[in-house]
């Protein structure tokens, strides 16, 4: 796989301080809960499926998906990996009240993760990966 386009996207986002997904302030909490529940339901996952589970989220953008998991499910722990400084700043802000999360500021192609996770989530980020 050629990952050169990924670096170009990240550099662009970094230069213009862009997070290419909505922030928590863009959404109402009830709308977020309904949207995320509906998404997971459509792929066959219920909130109970996350109970006591470890989740790895790659390229989480603003962290609203992890916010949903931490606030509305009984997820054990969420690890978020992103390399966009604007994203990391927003993630830290919206997840500040949750202790069961780890935020890693590193390129997902370079991060070394030895732990096993029950779920790995990566949404809306594949555009940066070229064959």
Description:
By secondary structure, the chain is of the alpha/beta class. The chain has one domain: Vaccinia Virus protein VP39 (Rossmann fold), CATH 3.40.50. Helix content is 35%, strand content 15%. It has helices spanning 4-16, 29-42, 64-72, 85-94, and strands spanning 54-58, 77-82, 101-105, 119-121. It has a four-stranded parallel sheet with strand order 3-2-1-4, covered by helices on one side. Helix 3 links the parallel strand 1 and strand 2 (77-82). The chain is globular and about 35 Å long. The mean pLDDT is 82.
Short account of what is shown:
With about 130 residues, the chain is of the alpha/beta class.
Features:
Rossmann fold; 131 residues; alpha/beta; four-stranded parallel sheet; 4 strands
The main β sheet shows up as:
4 strands, parallel
| Termini Cα gap | 5 Å
CATH class: Alpha Beta
Going by CATH, the architecture would be: 3-Layer(aba) Sandwich
Beta-strand fraction estimate:
5-15%
H-E order? HHEHEHEE
Helix content: 25-40%
- Please tell me how large the radius of gyration is: 15 Å
Average of per-residue pLDDT values? 82
Q: What is the strand and helix layout of this fold?
A:
Elements: H1 4-16, H2 29-42, E1 54-58, H3 64-72, E2 77-82, H4 85-94, E3 101-105, E4 119-121
Parallel strand pairs: 1-2, 1-4, 2-3
